[in-house]
Amino acid sequence: MDLAVMAAAAGEQTGVIWTLRESSDLNANLVRFEAGEGVGEHINDEVDVIFVGVSGTGSVLTNGEERRLSAGTLVLVRKGTRRSTLALSEGFSYLTVHRRRGPLQLGQGAR
Fold first, then answer.
1. Does any domain span residue 107?
2. For 55-89, what is each residue's pLDDT tens digit?
3. Which residues constitute the domain of residue 63?
């Protein structure tokens, strides 16, 4: 599966554009935003989350520290960390992977 092709094929669709459904243990989501969009600050007390950049450039803010995310880069966010994401370019997409939990509740943060 080519995640960059999937992200490009999403056109202007934003938010979660693909979700892994074949695993009962893992949750993975391909997320896409346009410049200035993202996920507002929140704390996830349930699971560690891996972010993998797929296309474009964005940032993951963790406890006030900015980490750049672009194609091929990885950021680990530990549970209990205050975090947010922000697209710094058009067509910013990333994959999140974590242990399965309840349904994903992803909304766009106001920026």
1. no
2. 999 999 999 999 999 999 999 999 999 999 999 99
3. 3-99
Residue 25 has pLDDT above 70, yes or no: yes
Q: What CATH number is attached to the domain comprising 63?
A: 2.60.120.10
Rounded to whole angstroms, the Cα distance separating 67 from 60 reads 5
Whether residue 57 is contained in a domain is answered as yes
Question: What is the pTM assigned to this prediction?
Answer: 0.87
Q: 103 falls in which pLDDT band (50, 70, 90)?
A: low
Please give the Cα distance from 14 to 56 (Å, whole number): 13
Number of domains in the chain: 1
User: Is 108 domain-assigned?
Assistant: no
Inter-residue contact 57 to 68 (CB < 8 Å) = yes
Locate 5 and state its tokens.
Answer: 């092709």
Q: Which residues in 1-23 are b (16+ Cβ under 10 Å) and which e?
A: eebeebbeebeeebeebbeeeee
Query: Domain for residue 54, yes or no?
Result: yes
